[in-house]
Amino acid sequence: MWLLAMSIAFVGLGACAILAAKAPVRTHDLPVLLVTGALAGFTLVSLGVGGLFSSYRPVPLAVGAAVYAVLCWGLAWAPGRSRMSCRVRANLRLLRACMSFTARHTWRHPVTALVFLVAAAVYGLRAWLSLHLPAADYDGLMYHLVGPDKWVQAGRLVHTPENLWADTYPMGVELVAAWPSVYLHSVQYAPLAQLPCYLLGGLSVLSLARQLGARRSHALLAGCAFLLTPAVFAQANTLYVDASSASLDLGALSLAAGLSEAALAVRPRKQILLRTAATGLATGLAIGSKTSNLIILPLVALAILPQLLRLQNRKALHRGLPGRVVVVWALPVLAVGSWWYLRTWIAYGSPFYPVSLLGFPGRGSVEELVIGHNVPMALRGAGRLSQTWTSWADGLRTHYVGYDIRLGGLGPTWLLLILPGALVGLVLWLHSPRRRGPGRVLGFAAVLGMAVSPASWWARYVLISVGTLLPLAAYALTRLSRPRAGGRLPRLLAVGVRASAAGLLALSSWWGQSALPITTQQDPTVHGPDGQPFTPLHTVIDLAEHPDAAARIWPWFGYDALAEVPDGSVIALLQSHVQPFVHPLIGSRLQRRTTVLGNPTTADELAQQMHAARAHYVLLDNSRIAQQLVSAVLSDSTHFRLMNRPEQRIFGADLYELGSFPAAGTSLPSKALYLPDGQVEVTGT
Predict the structure, then answer these.
(1) Side-chain half-sphere of 558: how many Cα atoms within 13 Å?
(2) In whole numbers, what is the pLDDT of the chain averaged over residues?
(3) Distance CA 212, CA 425 (A)
(4) What's the pLDDT tens digit per position in 38-54?
(5) Residue 370 to residues 171, 355, 375, 452: CA-CA distances in angstroms?
(6) Residue 86 confidence (pLDDT) above 80
(7) Which of 304, 461, 586, 649 is the most exposed place for a label (fewest CB within 10 A)?
(8) Is residue 619 helix, strand or coil?
(9) Could you tell me which of 116, 140, 348 has the C-alpha nearest to residue 241?
């Protein structure tokens, strides 16, 4: 544990080098820079140590974190030690003054303070659940956790043939989540490692709102509103990465939009390049977390280009600045974000495999592979606009919030306040004689996010649009609150909007916490609009405090057959029938290993492949595909033994042990199991 704390401290120390490099100008972007530096540190150290040097273990990671801290402070070193120390002290004073002023300013606005407390309570509950309950989210068990499982066990960033998505998807967020697992040899705390990404999302929305000119309290309200979007907080105790990847997008956009503020420094050229490098890191983090985040590349370019054109008019910045900005931005993007695409390109012949994208071959489009069979019944057959409106309108009614919510995942605040408020804010910004900030870029980003999304009705696929419209809504609220906004009516309207926002956000947060998408073996459940089972919150809390909670939660209670498998054993899977959930086979403590064999047709072939893979157990499906092999294994009782009863099958598969067993006819104690319909299952002779 102390080594984990030391490695995190080293990465944090490296991120704090921004205090020595950044000129003490503006403070709303400083927290964004600090969180971005920390996330980039975890990613770069993991890629270097686990990928390039194949030493994904506690001590090498800690050493890599120390090297990261040294390099960051070395790059931040300014000519003369006193100048660097002055920068650190000045930035700390500004940060402390800003936080103190924001706290006082917020408490003078009870509505904003209430929303902030609601957000703190929601994420505190989700963090507590992550500490006490095992992972039970579908995609997390299927592929998000498989990568960290295999990396930690192998001690390097290996391929994961157990699941195609785990082997081909960009897994930048999972790489950050796996950091504590290397030291604790357990993925129990992996969801907690995503919380810095959520923090980055809220801070980025706040920073964008401040760049537009919104008040601190309104900017903070917008940041909390993003975190309290149902589709965002519902994933906070899971390994789903949609909210985290959207937060990384917002971080990159926030840093890119504030490039011109760096020109206010005494040495503007150096500060502009520093901000550009930080933007490159944030952009690399974004595209390394999800393929759909590639849309952030044109958005960042669109945010940077106009600022560069304006800055070129200054003689001190004219010479060679655009070319250097491009290089300084592109290098971090490639260093942080290109690893997963290059690895998939080398292994499968396409950087986006299995998705067919940008002319690269695959197994099909996103709509064919992912979206098609996930369209709710209420939306099937309708057009895209009709589907989107139906989903948005569904957020106005009471319902439970699952981590994969498909209808109404943006909540009532989206349709009633955020969307109309953002439209008003954009109009006010365009007609303002003193426009500041990235108003046009935010509006374009929201439209582009909706347009390129494979499913604009699915909330978790359009979170970047929510995050880019919230700053515009905060700007509109600020304009209406000004004494010169046109009289008393606009100010009263602004008060009503703030009160309504607080009420709606608190209401949707309660809907999202009153029952959670967890299925238990004995406790009563309720059902959501799409039939997904939910368990009431009080039952979940009681379950979390139970010493044997994991054995009572789906799908973990379906793996009773593994109770007799010793720790350290290797379980073989066949290519023709890979289990839907690989992580439970490995276990939260990573106590078992898995391997994928070919497609043997005889018991002898199976035994040979298992010996080569050092596997003592194998899961065989009882479907027609493996029927011939199963019959051969059952006939070879001297080498294979059935380990489970019929009701203990793992998603239709039986568990067999490979070994040397007495031949048929040898006297062994018999065990009879009486089955329905008068049948008897006998083990032994």
Answers:
(1) 18
(2) 86
(3) 10
(4) 999 999 999 999 999 99
(5) 18, 10, 10, 15
(6) no
(7) 649
(8) strand
(9) 140
Q: Let me know: does 40 contact 74? Beta carbons within 8 Å.
A: no
How much is the pLDDT for 264?
Answer: 63
- What are the C-alpha distances in Å from 670 to residues 107, 635, 638? 74, 19, 17
Model confidence pLDDT, tens digit, residues 297-312: 999 999 998 888 777 6
Residue the block writes with tokens 């704090």 = 16
Helix (H, G, I), strand (E, B) or coil at 214: coil
Phi-psi region of 434 (alpha: psi -120 to 50; beta: other; left: phi over 0): beta
What pLDDT is recorded for position 667? Answer: 44
Stretch 435-457: mean pLDDT:
90
pLDDT digits 0-9 by tens, 640-657 = 999 988 888 888 889 999
Q: Which two tokens stand for residue 383?
A: 């057009």
pTM: 0.91
Measured CA to CA, the distance from residue 604 to residue 655 in angstroms comes to: 17
Which pLDDT band, with edges at 50, 70 and 90, does 252 fall under?
A: very high
- The β-bridge partners of 445 are none
Query: How far apart are the C-alpha atoms of 333 and 499, rounded to whole Å?
Result: 41
**What does DSSP assign to residue 371?**
I
- Rounded to an integer, what distance in angstroms lies between the CA atom of residue 258 and that of residue 203? 14
Burial 371-386 (b: 16+ CB within 10 A, else e): beeebbebbeeeeeee
Q: Are residues 560 and 646 in contact, defined by beta-carbon separation less than 8 angstroms?
A: no
| Chain centroid offset of residue 520 CA | 25
- Adjacent-strand bridge partners of 357: 360
- Token pair listed for 662: 């007495």
Element (DSSP H or E) covering residue 597: strand 593-597
d(CA 569, CA 615): 7
- The vertex-290 CA angle with 303 and 176, nearest 5°, equals 100
249 within 8 A of 293, measured Cβ to Cβ: yes
**Top-confidence residue, 127 or 316:** 127
Contact between 376 and 406 (Cβ < 8 Å): yes
